[in-house]
Amino acid sequence: MALTYDDVVAKYNAVLGLEVHVELNTESKMFCSCATTFGAEPNTQTCPVCLALPGALPVVNEKAIESTIKIGLALNCSIAPYSRFARKNYFYPDMPKNFQISQYDEPICFDGYVDVEIETEEGPKQFRIEIERVHMEEDTGKSLHVGGATGRIHGADYSLLDYNRAGIPLVEIVTKIVPGTGKYAPEVAKAYVAELRDILRGLGVSDVKMEQGSLRCDANVSLMLKDVTELGTRSETKNVNSLRSVERAIRGEMIRHAELLNDGKKVKQETRHFQEDTGLTRSGRSKEQAEDYRYFPDPDLVPVTPAASWVEELKAALPERPSVRRKRLKELWAVPDKEFAAMVNADVLDIVEATVLLGADATKARTWWLGEISRIANDKNVAITDLPITPADVAELVALVASGELTDKLARQVVEGVVNGEGKPSDVVAKRGIKVVNDDGALMAAIEKVCSEQADTAEKVRGGHLPAAGALIGAVMKETKGQADAAKVRELLLKHLGQ
Amino acid sequence: MSELVKKTAVEMAASLSSGEVSSVDLTQAHLDRISDVDSSVKAFLHVDKDGALAQAAAVDAKRKAGEKLSPLAGVPLALKDVLAQEGVPTTAGSRILEGWRPPYDSTVVSKLKNAGIVILGKTNMDEFAMGSSTENSGYGPTFNPWDLSRTPGGSSGGSSAAVAAFEAPLAIGSDTGGSIRQPAALTGIVGVRPTYGAVSRYGLIAYSSSLDQAGPFGRTVLDTALLHEAIAGHDAHDATSINAPVPAVVSAAKSGDVKGMKIGVIKQLQGEGYQTGVQKRFTESLELLASLGAEIVEVDCPSFEYALAAYYLIAPSECSSNLARFDAMRYGLRTGDAAGASAEAVMSATRDAGFGREVKRRIILGTYALSSGYYDAYYGSAQKIRTLIINDYARAFGQADVLVSPTAPTTAYKIGEKVDDPMAMYLGDVATIPVNLAGICGMSLPAGLADEDQLPVGFQIMAPAMQDQRLYQAGSALEAALASKWGGTLISKAPALNITSGGAR
Lengths: 499, 505
Fold this sequence. Notes:
Strand order of the largest sheet of chain A: 2-5-6-9-1-10-11-12-13
Largest interface: A-B, 30 and 44 residues
Shape of chain A: elongated
Strand content of chain B: 5-15%
Largest sheet of chain B: 11 strands, mixed
Order of helices and strands of chain B: HHEHEHEHEHEEHHEHEHHHHEHHEEH
Number of helices of chain B: 16
Radius of gyration of chain A: 29 Å
Strand order of the largest sheet of chain B: 1-3-2-4-6-5-10-11-9-7-8
Distance between the termini of chain B: 20 Å
Radius of gyration of chain B: 21 Å
Order of helices and strands of chain A: HEHEEEEEEEEHEEHEEEHHHHHHHHHHHH
Oligomer: heterodimer
Helix content of chain A: 25-40%
Structural class of chain A: alpha+beta
């Protein structure tokens, strides 16, 4: 029977478990010196090690260890003074060694937490997500299954393999079970992944681009009746490639589980794949029989034993926590709650801060980035940071408006020019010949012309009907090709009409 | 047989540096010898005639130009087929790698090339180094130059046979459970397994990563030391490589003094189960060492009793994972690739066709030992035994500078004699395996011929990790004493081989 989300949360509590895979942005792979550039020609970033040629051996990338320790520290974890890599043995055509080097019972970071805050009906509420472990592993290659209806290996005519991704350093962040989120489970999960993303970005250890797969989330969901403490059977949803999808996938799974349970059926313990178009999941491989990965310590690698002094150094150098930074900026810039939430959602905190640091007024900087520039990014369907306009450009623009050299309206034309690649704001102003008409004589001539053309309207204004002035101001602006300051025009017009 | 090939590597190097002979001539003499005898010995899987002569010519040119050369520059060598050599067929004795030409050099090969050592070709071995007789090679066995009906030992039997048959003065082998020392013993030459981590494993096709170690073969202790020095040293491509100076093995081999040295005889590695002639030659060698001023003590290593069992859990476990990469996807054999066959089906068919019985046996053993529910009982227990063996050695080395035993319980056995009885074959490694489990170093050198079969007997010397020079110090002393007793080296007593044209396969 089809249920609504409200039906589900009235009867059941959800228990979450989130596994996030993060591709580190190290220059070289986890166990060899191959480059890690995204989108390179297939199989050009490979070597004997990451192709698993006979005789080749892995050597750990020290930078990856450093990044992982930083992540662990930022997530309030303990750092193991001794941890090891293990081999996870299974066959898959895009995994060259047919085992993945991972960490098993000895992860490098363990027992941490992340606090996230979400808006609830009762106001902002904080949830603590406990972290079980953070460990290092290597990514697999990529398969492209050609032919067949599903794009999956079964039924495909053939498969193409790209080993460029094989051996890219991955960090897996695993939560403990997350109970007690009630009807906010999907939002809490989304907020957690967003918080992780911000922490990781702040650390500079990953590109954290969900759409490129550098941040991937697997969501484990189970339901239990409200008055029951025994955990239900979970499903694990993979392929969740955006923050919005995290929320949708969990909501969808909660409804699917509840429908099964209400009908007296069992939830199957299995891997499911999220489908962006429908917002639903489909069954993947069944996990009823746990696969035996025959884990054992990798004899080709030596234990990881970071010196306590090094860990302390890394801890001391950690950047400001995103939540602390948000609070600080919100107060510093005196931004209202709703506006600030919009900035966070639009992901403009970094660029606004950079713009302010270049001398721009915080409110003006925020308005430009959140308004006109966000609109252009949306129109072009690109990330705001991918537009060719920089904090320095916006700071210059704000300064030009402040000095009266540009009106807001003219400044929008300048933004358009900068985005079109016409150069810095001053270049655009010069090339396009944009300037404010400040000459009272020229303005008065235009006003007189308009008032005589639209004598009826002018008469209404003269008679005290001020809203009618708008049409006249518009006409004057048009007459001066938009280069006049509208406020100045209004002032002169009203004076001219005896108001 | 050209007299050239009977020289030691040191003598060859002297002739080269004096200009008496060129490396091309020396290399050609060995290629001729291979062509004369290898159809009966079958030491080589591939002879790289053109590559070897080109390398020799390059060394000659450098010498002519007055460049400073390393001690073994221009001297030829036989390379166990377990080591990757760029562009040269490398199979690890397995059909699954037939025709594979690596796009890269193993670190050992790079070091050999940098030292100007001429690589004649790739030698036969038990498939993936699993075996003690070369009978497990996917390409047929190698025959012992002392008696062609017998095995040259294994798994580095191709390398030991090549050196014993004067097809090369030097060879590289690899030793996971005795695979250098046992074939050295069975063919009357010198073989050393260096300390684990002393020689890079990069490019050594893995059998059991925590036990594998490449090492040198020679007909004398000093020749072996020179090759040891050429291939050892830290390598950033191998995480388990030791970052420390190479022990002074060459000067130790030159000094050869055992006066005051404490030599420990391991109680558990002699007596019952050891062939009479083997035991007799071992005891005589001990007496010789005592006569040179060494102090002989007996040491107790009670955990050695379990060494074989631990080895046959650890090595198969690691190999079951190491050999998973042979999946028909990227290199080597591919069979069963019919339309509609899945990746899994092609992999299975290829592994069935490409792996031999012993390899399959060990993959199955190891897969089982690592399975969840069995891990603690098998792999876990074996690792504990490993620790006990390390402790036994630590105690024993507290009482003695080096430890000694016969290298193998018997002399060379007949081809086919033990091939259907894996347990009997495994028992041949009883004296060599503890060294691998503990990661220390060991040498085998000839102790004479057993009275009953007139076949070579090996004398094993063991030293603590990174104390490899002690092997050479004790080994060269014993070698000199035995040579003066015999009036020459043991290998000079090897029967001449019939010259059969046809050459190497």
